[in-house]
Write a structure and sequence with these properties.
Elements: H1 26-46, H2 55-67, H3 76-93, H4 112-116, H5 120-145, H6 151-164, H7 171-200, E1 206-209, E2 211-212, E3 217-221, H8 225-235, E4 241-245, H9 255-258, E5 263-266, H10 274-277, E6 285-287, E7 303-306, E8 315-317, H11 324-333, E9 340-341, E10 350-353, H12 357-362, H13 364-372, E11 378-384, H14 393-401, E12 406-411, E13 425-426, E14 429-430, E15 432-436, H15 441-455, E16 464-469, H16 474-484, E17 491-493, H17 502-512, E18 515-516, H18 520-528
Parallel strand pairs: 3-4, 3-6, 4-5, 6-7, 7-8, 11-12, 11-16, 12-15, 16-17, 17-18
Antiparallel strand pairs: 1-10, 2-9, 13-14
Helix pairs in contact: 1-2, 1-3, 1-6, 2-3, 2-5, 5-6, 5-7, 5-16, 6-7, 7-16, 14-18
Bound molecules: iron/sulfur cluster and FE4-S3 cluster.
């Protein structure tokens, strides 16, 4: 196997051998490659036959790409089934040969070994495209669940997949497509923002308790708000409380979700702590998306999956969204006998969320005033994924050390490093504001653009610095979006991606001033100049 798509890849180079660091087995990695090769074959078959593309073709592309994201699916059977479905769809589009032999037809499947063994710059650019579109597909998938689609976003998947399969493409052809991933992701995040806010209302600031009350409960994790809504509806009046986990935390801010009184609070911290945190809770856990770690035997019978998430041996809830098995498990386990007070990693007993674009833009005048009066000196966007690496303490320390006249905006699961800290307020606004999930980077961009307009400058001229953390591929497409918007001097950590070659890195450094994080002290000094 070869896989280097996430930050915890072996020796910062690539997972090889029998199993990846995430627990993905070699067989699964091979099947994921085969599936990606089949999707490239499908994209090739679409060329010139666009009129034959249906919703089923589009949905297969989304599913196929999303499934291969880190910590989503470890189930070989599901991959085999998906590969077969992609094959059938290709045959429907391009029935060149009844035996299914596409050799020489121009729409054969792609052998991913060619990509992994390619010249390192080509491999780097194609990896940026592939890992980027895997995440764009995840966001498009969530939007599609709520009935939102965008033909332009969808068309790009075929273009990008075809490009990955082109052995004659060099830097010149691939680089613009890398940046186009960022452009398309912006459209896609905007679509998901619209889907979420039109369906569930605009997020409002919410204080979220970290106490788990006595009695039966269910923990729900991942990014899919629709799954949470279905679970809330099906548990209403049953004496079962619901707690969010990981990237589901911002759900507490949506009016159409927080109206359910049994949506009580948040349990646990970021994904990498799940094997410890889930080990002895008397409750089931439902995974709606990444990040699923291989469950330990001690709690494997309490973990449920839905949508594209799957792990052999776990109960999977199908498209009909009947959560009865999860509900029955919650009632059987009964929950805690007494209320249990949990804390964040810094000992805080509550967290805040819900500072998305609508909330922040409604107080834009106040913010602009505070900046002009010198009450707010600087904004930091400290966002991205969390992970297990020791160096991630940087983000906790960085936030702790930000001066009292600065504001910290955050999003995605990296915030669990510091979201329980009490940083106080400036002019009635909290100094630490959680915008939402990783896809709410769209909201952060809207806030930055509005501030730039208010000050009559460009986003790069704002007193705003981005200090990002990455783990899986969603951070890749968000980073590409920020680059597409021309945002400069982003600090990235805890390590730089293994799939960025020296030449590609040099390009990013020269053109966009991307820099690795150093120490909180040095970075703060460099940013604030004091
Ligand atoms: Fe390794 Fe990450 Fe790939 Fe898992 S997803 S095999 S940890 S690079
Ligand atoms: Fe986190 Fe897995 Fe990336 Fe949506 S849930 S940000 S790591």
């Amino acid at each position: 196997m070869f896989c280097f798509q996430c930050e915890q890849t072996a020796a910062c180079k690539g997972c090889t051998g029998k199993m990846g660091v995430c627990g993905k087995k070699a067989d699964t990695a091979e099947l994921q490659d085969q599936l990606t090769g089949a999707l490239i074959g499908l994209a090739r078959a679409v060329e010139g036959r666009e009129n034959r593309v249906t919703m089923r073709t589009d949905q297969l592309i989304l599913e196929g790409l999303f499934t291969t994201l880190t910590n989503v699916n470890f189930d070989d059977e599901m991959f085999r089934e998906l590969i077969a479905r992609v094959g059938l769809e290709k045959e429907r589009l391009a029935p060149v040969c009844s035996a299914g032999d596409y050799a020489g037809s121009g729409c054969d499947d792609y052998d991913m070994k060619k990509l992994w063994e390619a010249d390192e710059d080509i491999r780097s650019l194609k990896s940026l495209i592939l890992f980027g579109i895997r995440s764009v597909a995840a966001y498009a998938y969530h939007a599609a669940v709520l009935g939102y689609c965008d033909a332009e976003v969808q068309r790009f998947f075929y273009k990008a997949l075809s490009a990955i399969g082109r052995d004659d493409f060099g830097m010149e052809e691939l680089l613009p497509i890398v940046l186009e991933v960022g452009e398309v992701n912006l459209k896609c995040m905007a679509m998901l923002d619209e889907a979420n806010t039109k369906t569930f209302g605009h997020p409002e600031p919410a204080e979220v308790s970290l106490t788990v009350e006595k009695g039966p409960f269910i923990v729900i994790t991942g990014h899919d708000l629709y799954d949470l809504k279905c679970l809330l509806e099906q548990t209403a009046g049953k004496g079962i409380n619901i707690y969010t986990h990981g990237e589901m935390l911002p759900a507490h801010a949506y009016p159409e979700l927080k109206k359910y009184s049994h949506l009580k609070g948040n349990f646990g911290t970021a994904w990498q702590n799940q094997q410890k945190e889930f080990a002895d809770i008397p409750a089931p856990v439902l995974f709606t998306t990444n990040c699923l770690m291989p469950p330990k035997a001690s709690y494997g019978d309490r973990v449920f999956t839905t949508e594209v998430v799957s792990f052999p041996g776990l109960t999977h809830i199908g498209a009909e969204k009947d959560f009865t098995p999860v509900i029955e498990k919650a009632l059987e386990l009964g929950g805690f006998a007494e209320d249990q007070q949990f804390t964040g990693i810094n000992g805080g007993d509550k967290v805040m969320t819900g500072f998305a674009r609508n909330t922040l833009l409604s107080v834009a005048d106040k913010v602009v005033e505070a900046v002009k009066a010198g009450a707010i000196r600087h904004f930091f966007l400290v966002g991205g994924c969390d992970g297990a690496r020791m160096g991630r303490n940087y983000y906790t320390e960085f936030v702790k050390q930000t001066p009292a006249d600065t504001v910290v905006l955050t999003l995605a699961c990296g915030k669990y490093r510091f979201n329980d800290l009490e940083l106080g307020t400036i002019g009635g606004l909290p100094r630490l504001m959680d915008i939402g999930q990783c896809n709410d980077a769209y909201s952060a961009i809207q806030i930055a653009v509005a501030l730039a307009e208010a000050f009559g400058c460009g986003v790069n001229d704002l007193p705003l610095s981005m200090v990002l953390s990455w783990y899986e591929q969603k951070a890749v497409c968000i980073l590409l979006t920020l680059l597409h918007l021309g945002i400069k001097n982003i600090r990235l950590g805890p390590t730089l991606p293994a799939f960025v070659s020296t030449n590609v890195l040099n390009f990013l450094v020269e053109k966009y001033g991307i820099a690795p994080i150093t120490t909180p002290e040095e970075d703060l000094k460099a940013i604030l100049g004091a």
